Amino acid sequence: MNHLFSYSLPSLFTIIFLLATVGSTAADPSPSISHFIIGADASHVGFFETRGKVYREAGQPRDPFKIMKEHGINCIRLRLFTSSNEQAQRNPYNSINNLAYTVPLAVRVKQAGLQLLLDFHYADSWADPAHQPKPRAWQGLSFEQLEQRMFEYNRDCIAAFKRASAMPDYVQVGNEITPGMAWPDGKVGGANDTPAQWEKLGRLMKAAMRGIHEAAGREMPKLIVHIDRGGDWATTQWFFDHLREQHVEFDIIGQSYYPFWHGTLDDLRTCLTNAAQRYGKPVIVAETDFPWVDKDSAGQPAKPIIGIPPGKAGQVQFIQALGQVVRGVPDGKGIGIFWWAAEYLPLDGTNLAGFEGRSFFDHDGNVLPIAGAFGQLAQQDAKSVVSAAPFR
Fold first, then answer.
1. For domain 10-379, which CATH number applies: 3.20.20.80, 3.20.20.70, 3.30.300.30, 3.30.310.250?
2. Could you give the percent of the chain with pLDDT greater than 70?
3. pTM score, two decimals?
4. Which of 9, 14, 10 minimizes the C-alpha distance to 192?
5. Is residue 214 flagged as an active site residue?
6. Which of 139, 158, 252, 146 is nearest to 211 (CA)?
7. How many Å apart are CA 323 and CA 15, to the nearest integer?
8. Which of 42, 57, 142, 306 measures 20 to 30 Å from 182, CA to CA?
9. Could you give the count of Cα atoms lying within 13 Å of 300 in the half-sphere of its Cβ?
10. Active-site residue among 57, 249, 287, 356?
11. Among the options 57, 147, 176, 343, which is catalytic?
12. Whether residue 287 lies in the annotated active site
């Protein structure tokens, strides 16, 4: 999710080809998932803290990961850019999430007793349906060289987390990759909706997965393929049918669902159910959120979103309704939800595109009721089991 750019969904009838693994490289399967994933993307915690922002519980400063853990959050999602330290220093908000920044943050996540989802972007900054730029350092490579670089990069990154005792439990091979990734080589959809382009995308994904396998060994994380079509079954089927043809193996289908962009909860229910049944995979909502701010920019009451009024109570109402949809996917295949920008706080001089009004914390850093309401979803019985079986 690039919160600085609101993209037009219909214009992006493309792909997302993500994570998987190749049978010939598969390590021993990791343990099944028997709990509902209550996740929060908190990738910018370090960014906000180093700029003087403080997270609080009842007015008292506390570690944000411990706050979330105690409210029932059980997994933290961290994005990973390919940016250099120079790029991160020059434009920290848009480039800080590189390996040097993210590994120490992952260590904090693990020390707080939380699981970790690592979200590879394969770009120096935000990768989303409107932007999937190849890293600057990878420009000029032939496709075969790019394929090898994809393998090496994933291997080396996972090895770095493993050395730090911060091994991810889940890995996204790309972020909202509906139109592919590492453009133009891995671009699909529109004029690039061709067998040759799909083959390239499949090869890049499988190279990434081989790298993850090699570094992870017996600690292999679950692999998630993440697209941005939570309320769009037609595009979801188009993408994953093509991915199946490329024999890309993975564990979990991830969808973005923002109620102000991606349709109704009924649209989401249809899409998740169809995907789980057609592909035999568990499904998650990999990104979502809802505003706790109940006024618009003019100071007027904000308009309802899918019938739910914005506000602190609205956030709670939304997550309860969303939880019912995801947990209602047949055969226990709805296994989790991740809240995006859970850590956002207002910051002078930085355009946060309003996401500071959709987080787990108010403008003074105090945790909001949404955190506890979200955590309560984990109290329900969860009978989901994640299979590592490939597409059949």
1. 3.20.20.80
2. 88
3. 0.90
4. 14
5. no
6. 158
7. 26
8. 42
9. 3
10. 287
11. 176
12. yes
